[in-house]
Design brief:
heterotrimer, A alpha/beta (about 250), B mainly alpha (about 280), C mainly alpha (about 290), A: about 250 residues, alpha/beta, Rossmann fold, 5-stranded antiparallel beta sheet, about 35% helix, B: about 280 residues, mainly alpha, MetI-like fold, two-stranded antiparallel sheet, 2 strands, about 0% strand
């Protein structure tokens, strides 16, 4: 099996008449953390949401080109969007717990997938909370509302909730934008551990975060992929002047 | 005549105050008058014995049961239809000519006078479909009347559920229906319930649509096909035909108390709901 | 696709069918009322129905003019009572009262909508009717009594829709006017009321619809005599009362004539609804 498990081929995306992504060609490799950086409105979030077809929810969303995951075109007719989304768990910019208990939040995806066995669910919830280092903090109040957790805890809960889907990929859309430095550090730490089991795509507007955790980094600007490469190379000797301008803080 | 703006402002403000106070006074007057005259009649016996001698004596037990049966019947029909419509309008389709037609239809339905519903229910259910004066005929007619309210309140409740909860649910691999039933509806529940409870109030107080469809039999209803008299109809007949004023006041007091309780519950629920999403 | 995803299509179709229920019910009601009511109108001529003065069902005389005039009088009477009170309350609650007071008063006023119409009618009978009889003369059961009680009954409609449209006026309008040194009332009069005009008109039209359609309260207090009233103290019968009073025992052509009464009522209500809908849509488009 090829190492390149996501492959996009001249992928473009439109919202109505506006083109938001222009001929994106990139691949994602197994068990890497791919950082995607770029200023606001560069299309990095749209790209992420194209991968789990969350853009489909917005009326007027249209695509050209293909995205293949494990060799399968995810926009092919007959594709199970539900299964696709389980395969690519997504963490949003602000932690959005469902208005349910901590336990129910983590178990939600599994329950939707039809898992009913109480013991199986219990095991899953515990396992996912342990992986995100949240278990010790919440083990005595699994039945209390998830909205009562702190911001950092909520975001880790959102990651735990994803892990319960048993995904292949974790998509993170600026997951630390609303968090304090310590919570951010905890999340970055768990990302490094999760890398062993999952392939992670991290969209961030904090270039330093990409430099800290990403194996490879892609730079998006105005809907275009300007360049992609080893993080070290992108941050030390970028090939494109615009990349250099962005990471050195001249705009964005 | 020219008035100094400041003085004009004072005068207007005073006038508005008086009108508003008068409105509130009218409401309190009605409530207190009915309770003042009706509460002395109320007793455990009044509530738990059947009317005797056309309602001249005895209590109102069978009319309470009739009211409850008719209300439940109408809500059992109107709630699924109303909430289903609201789900379709908000979650399953975009604004289009079809949604405009549906909304316009629902608005027109809400404007139709209850006597027209009564006329319609009488001719269709009671005579053409041969259901007779019955809880079934009355319940169906009432359900049609309540439908627009339930559609509108449910739609508003569903619309106020934050959009990002939808995204989260979808991203966790739920289908649209799972998203609606497991995430959207639970969050919108207090708002939907408010609409349902207000509909209970309307069906308890309705007379014109009920009297021609559920009839006015004083016997205890035994099945869906029994004719049954609601409290509001009972009160109307007692008062209009001058059968028994004390019993009329007593029935009115029960009606008013029921309406007060229903409104307080609805108000509480609504408040909770608004707090949650503002 | 998974099984659940395949079911989605069925669910969508089922929901669509449910969503058509309100429109279908409206259609069925319209068809029934018209099919029961129009044949007799054409048999005896629209003219004799709309302009005939005599209503003697047993002699095939179905003139509805007294009832039409009755409904119109009572409805306009109710607007004379309901509109000033309703607008005053709406303006007071949105523009002049404190937040606290508004939070207390609004639900109280909304309670008016919950009181059953038979209770309003009853209050009319035991309080208002004797009062009119003793102070102003006449039988008491009158256009005046019905107008006052209906005026109170349409208050919640006028108040709540007017409040909505007043609150929809952008805050910047208020601030702009106040900043120019206008008093609150000047602001309300010159800026807010014109901006909320279409919503307020819609509220009045819907209130009118409620007044025309009200039945039980009117039966109890309007007197129900079939003649064209000469003064507000005379008794009157409305279209709705005509249906409700005779439905119980009518049969044959008499019953059809009552449906014809329903047809006229129905058409009036639909015209009012359409006007209200059009004004509020126009108002929304203007913003």
């Amino acid at each position: 099996m090829s190492d390149r498990i996501i492959q996009t081929d001249n992928f473009s995306h439109y919202f109505g008449a506006i083109q938001t992504l222009k001929n994106i060609n990139l691949e994602v490799r197994r068990n890497e953390i791919l950082g995607i950086i770029g200023p606001a409105g560069s299309g990095k979030s749209t790209f992420l949401r194209a991968l789990n077809r969350l853009n489909d929810l917005t009326y007027g969303s249209r695509i050209e080109g293909t995205i293949k995951i494990d060799g399968q075109d995810i926009y092919a007719p007959g594709t199970s969007i539900v299964e696709l989304r389980r395969k690519l768990g997504m963490v949003f910019a602000t932690p959005i717990p469902l208005p349910r208990s901590i336990y129910e939040n983590v178990a939600f995806g599994a329950k939707m997938a039809g898992i009913k066995s109480k013991s199986e669910l219990n095991e899953l919830v515990t396992d996912c909370l342990v992986k995100t280092t949240l278990f010790e903090e919440v083990k005595d109040r699994l039945d209390s509302s998830a909205t009562k957790l702190s911001g950092g805890q909520q975001q880790r809960l959102c990651i735990a909730r994803i892990l319960a889907l048993k995904p292949e990929f974790i998509l993170l859309d600026e997951p630390c934008s609303g968090l304090d430095p310590i919570s951010t550090m905890k999340i970055e730490e768990s990302l490094r551990q999760l890398k062993n089991e999952y392939t992670i795509i991290l969209v961030t507007n904090n270039t330093k975060q990409a430099a800290r955790v990403a194996d490879r980094t892609a730079f998006f600007l105005n809907g275009e992929l300007i360049e992609i490469g080893q993080t070290e190379k992108i941050f030390t000797t970028p090939a494109d002047q615009r990349t250099n301008d962005y990471i050195s803080g001249r705009f964005g | 005549m020219y008035l100094n703006p400041k003085i004009e402002q004072r005068v207007v403000q005073a006038i508005l105050w008086v009108f508003t106070l008068a409105t509130v006074f009218i409401l309190f007057f009605i409530i207190f008058y009915i309770l003042h005259k009706g509460l002395p009649v109320l007793s455990y016996n009044f509530l738990t014995t059947n009317p005797l001698d056309m309602g001249k004596s005895g209590g109102i037990y069978s009319t309470i049961i009739g009211t409850i049966a008719l209300t439940i019947m109408s809500l059992l029909i109107a709630t699924p239809l109303g909430v289903g419509t609201a789900i379709y309008l908000t979650e399953y389709t975009r604004e289009s000519r079809i949604t405009r037609v549906i909304r316009f239809g629902s608005e027109c339905l809400s404007g139709i006078p209850s006597i027209i519903f009564g006329l319609f229910g009488f001719i269709l259910f009671v005579t053409k479909l041969k259901m007779g004066w019955s809880i079934l005929s009355g319940g169906l007619t009432l359900a049609f009347m309540l439908l627009p309210t339930i559609i509108r309140t449910s739609e508003e409740a569903i619309k106020s559920v934050p959009y990002n909860l939808h995204e989260v649910s979808y991203s966790l691999g739920s289908t649209q229906w799972q998203t609606v039933t497991k995430v959207v509806l639970p969050s919108a529940l207090p708002g939907i319930l408010t609409g349902v409870i207000l509909s209970v109030g309307r069906s308890v107080g309705e007379t014109a649509a009920v009297i021609f469809t559920a009839g006015s039999a004083l016997r205890m209803p035994t099945s869906l096909f029994s004719s049954s008299r609601t409290m509001a109809v009972h009160f109307f007949i007692l008062a209009r035909e001058g059968i028994s004023m004390p019993n009329a006041y007593g029935t009115a007091a029960v009606l008013i108390i029921t309406i007060l309780i229903i409104n307080i519950i609805a108000y509480r629920l609504m408040h909770k709901f608004i707090k949650k999403y503002s | 696709m998974t099984r659940l995803e395949r079911n989605e299509r069925l669910i969508k179709i089922a929901l669509f069918v449910i969503a058509c229920s309100a429109v279908s019910i409206l259609a069925v009601i319209t068809i029934f009322i018209f099919s029961e009511g129009t044949p007799i109108m054409f048999k005896y001529g629209l003219r004799s129905f709309l302009l005939g003065l005599d209503w003697y069902p047993s002699e095939q005389s179905f003139g509805l003019l007294p009832m039409i005039i009755g409904s119109v009088m009572v409805t306009f009477g109710s607007l004379l009572v309901g509109v000033p009170f309703g607008l005053a309350c709406a303006i007071f609650l949105t523009e002049f009262s404190s937040r606290r007071l508004r939070h207390i008063l609004k639900p109280i006023i909304e309670l008016l909508a919950g009181i059953p119409s038979v209770v309003y009618g009853f209050i009319g009978v035991v309080i208002l009717v004797p009062f009119i009889r003793e102070t102003l003369g006449g039988p008491g059961l009158s256009v005046l009594a019905a107008s006052i009680i209906l005026g109170i009954m349409i208050l919640p409609t006028i108040i709540s829709i007017s409040i909505d449209s007043l609150q929809a006026v952008p805050r910047s309008y208020r601030e702009g006017s106040i900043a120019l040194g206008a008093t609150k009332w000047q602001t309300t009069k010159m800026v807010i009321l014109p901006a909320a005009k279409s919503g307020i008109i819609a509220s009045i039209i819907l209130g009118m619809g409620r007044a025309i359609g009200e039945t039980m309260a009117v039966i109890m207090i309007a007197g129900n005599a079939i003649n064209i009233p000469r003064s507000v103290l005379d008794p009157v019968r409305t279209l709705t009362s005509n249906i409700a009073l005779e439905m119980g025992y009518a049969s044959g052509e008499h019953r059809q004539a009552l449906f014809a009464t329903g047809v006229i009522l129905f058409i009036i209500i639909m015209i009012l609804n359409t006007i209200a809908n059009a004004t509020s849509v126009k108002g929304k488009a203007a913003k």
